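Quick one, tokens below. Sequence please?
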């Protein structure tokens, strides 16, 4: 799955991305306890990915990129169940100290760039740093 940016909506107030064929939406939305990353079928409330990133703004971009990197493995025809299998904590409230760190380190260790040949992040665990 590959995503492109589109206009925000009531379900994705800060950032809204749509998959290439328009089947899926992914994005960020602020809430009382921080920002949530959310995903669902286009035109419907998010129901596949919906977890809180809290108020730590420096993790928003790396987490979104890590989620998108995992989703690249799937075709747009993937089911919600197939998407959930990419995230071992799907259906639970993620613990940033455990689940998000695991997500970020998994993506960093893969050394697979988001686009082109540039590696976007280096380091392990909570020591991820952008490459200049």
């Amino acid at each position: 799955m590959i995503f492109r940016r589109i206009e925000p909506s009531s379900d994705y107030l800060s950032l809204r991305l749509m998959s290439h064929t328009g089947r899926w939406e992914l994005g960020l939305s602020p809430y009382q306890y921080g920002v949530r990353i959310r995903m669902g079928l286009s035109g419907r409330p998010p129901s596949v990915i919906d977890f809180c990133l809290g108020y730590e703004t420096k993790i928003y971009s790396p987490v979104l990129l890590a989620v998108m990197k995992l989703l690249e493995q799937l075709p747009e025809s993937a089911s919600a169940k197939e998407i959930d299998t990419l995230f071992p904590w799907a259906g639970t409230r993620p613990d940033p100290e455990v689940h998000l760190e695991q997500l970020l380190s998994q993506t960093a260790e893969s050394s697979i760039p988001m686009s082109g040949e540039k590696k976007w992040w280096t380091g392990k665990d909570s020591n991820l740093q952008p490459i200049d």
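The longest helix spans residues 96-110. Residues 3-126 form one domain.
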